[in-house]
Amino acid sequence: ISGVPTKMYAAQATGCNPITSMIKSGAEFMRPVKPNTIAKSIAIGNPADGYFAAETVRKSGGWAADVTDAEVIEGIRLLGKTEGIFTETAGGVTVAVTKQLVEQGRFGADDVVVIAITGNGLKTQEAISEHVGRPTYIQANLSSLETALKAERLIATSVA
Q: What's the predicted TM-score (pTM) here?
């Protein structure tokens, strides 16, 4: 993107981070890695365009970060709690890296930050099933929803 003050940032899981490692270390060449992460959809140990991705980030003045699997799960939880969006593990990486970059002070107070969440969490349920509670099943009607929400104490019960 030329002529636009846009910075690009790279986000990867620590268990498969050839691009973010290249950027953070200032390396000229990308070193392939053997993937070891729950974020399977982005676990590419030797990405064909990794060099170009790193160059785009560098030329834009952006930065790179990677997060552990535990942080990926926390990123999924954070997006669910704050936005009501259930994302797959790759989205958890994006959210967790964005949080990390904010904590590092990589963004200005008036910066507009856009993150892409493109995958639904139903695609990668197995990756987080041990880390989240059991689902609540309801009938396809409002009464059943209200009953479930009251049971979970997510809405106040009426006093008669």
A: 0.81
Summarised one tens digit per residue, pLDDT across range 36-57 is 999 999 999 999 999 999 999 9
The DSSP annotation for the chain comes to --SS-----EEEETTB-HHHHHHHHT-SSPPP----SS-GGG--SS-TTHHHHHHHHHHHT--EEEE-HHHHHHHHHHHHHHH---B-HHHHHHHHHHHHHHHTT-S-TT--------SBGGGGHHHHGGGSPPPPP--SSHHHHHHHHHHTTSSPPPP-
Q: Please report the pLDDT score of residue 159 as a whole number.
A: 47
Task: Give the up-direction half-sphere exposure of residue 158: CA atoms within 13 A in the CB hemisphere.
Answer: 3
**What are 102-151's pLDDT values in tens digits?**
999 999 999 999 999 999 988 888 888 787 777 788 999 999 999 988 88
Count Cβ atoms within 10 A of the Cβ of residue 75 and give its class: 0-12 exposed, 13-18 middle, 19 or more buried: buried
Cβ count near 74 (within 10 Å): 17
